[in-house]
């Protein structure tokens, strides 16, 4: 009886719903697809073809008449019946211009129109015109099955049909936000409500997906971590071709302008259509698409505000479907594979099931803007974080959601929520996300303990193989503190190193932590480590392998970390160190020769990232997007009192900047300065990050290149009490040889200058200074195979060596990320 009832409802559904007919519009002569051809039906409905000429036509009657038109082609009138299974329309070109846009000087009318639209951009962009504005948005984010999208009628009660509907959808999230903008403070999003089906705790990664960029007026159009050339940017005519298709017959008519990338292999671009107001040339509506590894569709809708003479965004829809393969879309720590090539399993495979099902997934996200205030004059609280999350964001009641849902929330959505709840619980997906996040920071969680992967294995010339174990407790043990420690053993020096400590979370939201640590280990002589701004975990530390000049230390330290703003992070540390040498070195100070000595120091360190984007949650501050420049600084004062032997000051300041271009070329700058004042032993002087082993023969010095090290400078060759260095890397756009082979050519230039006041204080060691300025130039060809590449560098200038080969360094390069 159940199957009979199911069959009855399915047959009934086929009769009740309108027939959808797929089709394609092409050039009859060349067989090429016609993008954004206009199709009109008897009932006044209008659709546009996709960039591949495809369309889906809904017929309400047994037979309908449609009109197909396209600029430069003869308009066709066609009768279509419900018996039609597929409709291919071939259009015949007629070479004539649109009378409404004829330009007297004979220039391409589309080019003239876009030039005017670019000039008018300042008076049409809300961020340029308005001093401030505010609005609310409701977003619904869905991951669905392409072929499981069965619509449910209001009176459907069949349990069998409900089961089919449940199987069709895989993920659902809702968000309500308040958005603010002022010219002085910029943008701010306050998240008021967030529901992520299946997760007890909020999945904050979803908030950073950037599936709804507000403006098409910007230079770059950023959509989910990929930047595309803006269709109305200053250089738009260099990146796009334009064609005027028609004008709309609306209260405020608009030019329909088709745009298509000019340099697809150089600059990422979208293909689409702009509806430009015939009076102001502002965007009324826009549609953009991308076909290839993925099928991407984005629709922008704007609402007109007569009192402001301004079009303001009202709705945006983004849909991403499987393409021909190769590209992934990451969602809250996992990946959705939209394409069959190079299939990789991610966290969401547990939700989505088999690879065959995953290929049919599509991602759909809709944002509706409402309660718009274009005269906002208020202040923006906590402007350092671009997205701020309310503390009770996940506890909103049904009344809140019902009043703020501006997009239909169907019975199928509710069924999806229940289904995903059970799937995520059964698949322990939250645990898998926890593992992926921990791995990204260099650790692996095992129950209550996060194993520090950097402590497991290392190698250097002094210790040989260094094996160990370390890590820290996680929130499974306590939400208020962690215990941390490590132990490692060097098989060459046969010494056990270890450390232990605790971190007490005083205030998670602003990163206020109290730390207590003790460690017994070795450290590279003349190294300078910033407490803040350390690089993220890397699989390989190239320089560490060849270091052979270390000193031993025991260190007792306590520190206080505090995030003053999301963009400014600080740490203040009080420490006492006992130091002894691994080589014959002594420091002559005030008539006394020191091989072993004690230091008492106070250190203040900061990391300032003024242009990066942050998400501020009740528990933490999350970096959404790392933008440049950024600055790291540190001042350390060592006292001859409090049990210390020397009185000195060390200061370091580093500025980093990156210029990333749409053609995927990149230029990086690192400028760093260090200064030491007072009784400075060599252990606490400075080196310039040398990375050239001291061996005879250029091939015997073959090693792995670092990111900001001097590849031709020998270890222990130069030391400074004051120094400055500049690293410049310019990477050309990748050579697009194939989808899997895209090597990158990099030009490198490095400079360093330094000085040392009294070298004679440092006994049993000889070294040079950098007072004449050190220069090297390099070349790298990266990503030749599996992240590996080759590089070379040449030493020139004041410290050029007599032997020609001695000035060269040849290197492996390795660019892998965990």
TrEMBL record:
It comes from Christiangramia echinicola. SUPFAM superfamilies: Carboxypeptidase regulatory domain-like. It comes from the Bacteria. InterPro entries: CarboxyPept-like_regulatory, DUF5686. This is CarboxypepD_reg-like domain-containing protein.
